[in-house]
Design a protein that fits this description.
By secondary structure, the protein is an alpha/beta fold. It contains seven helices and five strands. 40% of the residues lie in helices and 16% in strands. Strands 2-1-3-4-5 form a five-stranded parallel beta sheet, with helices on both faces.
Length: 196
């Protein structure tokens, strides 16, 4: 029986055509071939404001596009987030999207005791983070310690109940050439087939 998979396409350019878009399509192709049900959420095409206060984050209703994304993630067994590394982290638009989606009441319960975490509401779901970058992936992992990816994994995904969480770092995107890019696309296509 196939999984229900949601892919968050986190590149902020609505024009498409970037390697991250090709990776999302490769994952989709592999997953469809294996009988998984897949939905892509293209962050660049969604209409939502940035949150500017704790009150907005905790109490305001999410905009319609965000509510639709929350419903898709709630149905999913597995979440894939694909984004480029910009200035050492995810693009601002993706961060704004995640702040809108992972709200109290959807991703975690409001805590009974101030200062204590609320219940994790997204337990039972797995996740994979796929990050593209210009530098070698090993340099980001070992020299820079992959801080931004760890923050996404720990402070958003694990905090709300996701597990296990896996990562795929794809470095030297501009320098890899067609052969290297095709190899990584094949690897991501296999991840899609495996639903991992």
């Amino acid at each position: 029986m196939g999984k229900r998979i949601v892919i968050v396409q986190g590149h902020p350019d609505p024009g498409g055509g970037h390697y991250g878009h090709a990776l999302a399509q490769a994952y989709l192709q592999g997953a469809n071939a294996a009988g998984h049900e897949v939905e892509i959420l293209p962050v660049s095409e969604l209409d939502f404001p940035l949150l500017r206060s704790k009150l907005d984050f905790e109490n305001n209703q999410p905009p319609p596009d965000i509510a639709r994304c929350q419903a898709a993630i709630a149905r999913a067994d597995h979440l894939v987030i694909i984004h480029p590394l910009w200035l050492g982290s995810m693009p601002a638009l993706l961060k704004g999207f995640l702040e809108q989606v992972f709200r109290p009441g959807f991703a975690f319960a409001k805590p009974d005791t101030p200062g204590r975490p609320g219940a994790k509401l997204l337990k039972g779901k797995s996740a994979r983070v796929i990050v593209t970058m210009g530098m070698p992936g090993f340099a980001y992992k070992w020299f820079y310690r992959a801080h931004a990816v760890k923050s996404l994994e720990r402070n958003i995904l694990a905090f709300t109940g996701f597990g296990p969480i896996h990562r795929t770092l794809i470095g030297m995107v501009e320098a890899n050439g067609d052969r290297g890019r095709k190899k990584r696309l094949a690897e991501v296509r296999k991840l899609g087939r495996d639903g991992s």
